[in-house]
Amino acid sequence: MPKKFLIISQVFPPDPAAVGQYFDEAAQALRAAGHEVTILTANRGYDDPEQKFEAFENRSGVAVRRLPASSFGKASMPVRIFGQLSFLLQCIVRGLFQRGLTDLLVSTSPPMCGIVAVLIGWLRPSVKVHYWVMDLNPDQAVALEVFQPKHPLVKAMDWLNRRILKRASSVIALDRFMAARLRVKLERERRALAVERSRITVIPPWPMGQHAEAVAHAENPFRKEHGWADRFVVMFSGNHSWVHPLGTILDAAEQLAEDPRFVFVFIGGGKGKAEVDERIERWGHLEAGRARPAVVSLPYQPLEVIRYSLSAADLHLVSLGDHMGGIVHPCKVYGALAMARPVLTLGPQESYLNDILSEDCVGWSVAHGDVAGAVQALQAAADLSSEARSEMGARARAVVAQKFNREQLLQQFTDTVLWPADRGQKAEDRGQI
């Protein structure tokens, strides 16, 4: 029997944020399976509130409803919180009165979206709630030392997390470290571990549809436009957040200023982008005769350009903060691998990124602060012959095809939310929990 899904996400295409793109593909998969899907999202860009989107859109059968006064940008924390609360209040009202609703799918965008799920789930007990965990708060705020562990807001959000975890028919985590953190939260409720374990499925993000095929350098208009024909392009593409530190690679770029092969490209936005732009400005003031690092800062690219921008790189950067394992999950690694490009990861030894690198020779791993190690890894990547680089890229592409296949992961996602009652045993059989 067809189901009626309501999906809540503050970001959604054409906004370029990755969370929205994943919800778009998930919604299309549910619609293709014969179910009715409605999306509630903001009518303005999350990173750029000057962008305004159509209030109503039929997106290949998925009904998109963009709500007013739902995003005012990231100018300050109060501004962000006000936009989130306005969005969530509208979602609660619409969710409570939507006729025939059978399933509610929420994530952690915005972080307080669990309030919607808890309230709607409490007042409409027949509705199945599905919780797609993209990152963890207040864990992230505590790790960044924005709040202390015993702060009242931290305790309140932890309580909310436990409520939605208890209420959810299915919980989807992005990696084993995140699943472990979620299980700890559930265990605090003193419920039977076997029961709670069956609710958590690990489904890693999949490469986006725009990443389906890499573009050769010689045929890439993005690479030609920027004059990188003979350069070794090291690229970080996506959200520049404090949880993805880039200081080590910027220091390495400074040390490699006299090596004409390298150009370092940072594409995207976010609070962490300020560090990149400040370095570029400072290097621009170096006295004459001193080599300036070749560092380029670009904004988010339109979705139709992403395939070309990602293909323009020779090496992709993926960063995970030292205390962020299981809290955030930089999904940009999958796009890099799908583009048949090696990766350089920055972060702790114990992480899902190094799970990938330890099993397959598709790149290098460096700890934050190890500038010498980063320089050595960058030089090793640039020194590879074109044949060796192609072989490494082919292995990267094969990893995606075998372990992060988009169609298989989308199918696993739809199975999880469509049949949550049967999912626990299936997950145990697959070794997912």
Automatic annotation (TrEMBL):
SUPFAM superfamilies: UDP-Glycosyltransferase/glycogen phosphorylase. Pfam families: Glyco_trans_4_4. Residues 19-206 form the Glycosyltransferase subfamily 4-like N-terminal domain. InterPro entries: Glyco_trans_4-like_N. This is Glycosyltransferase family 4 protein. It comes from Coraliomargarita algicola.
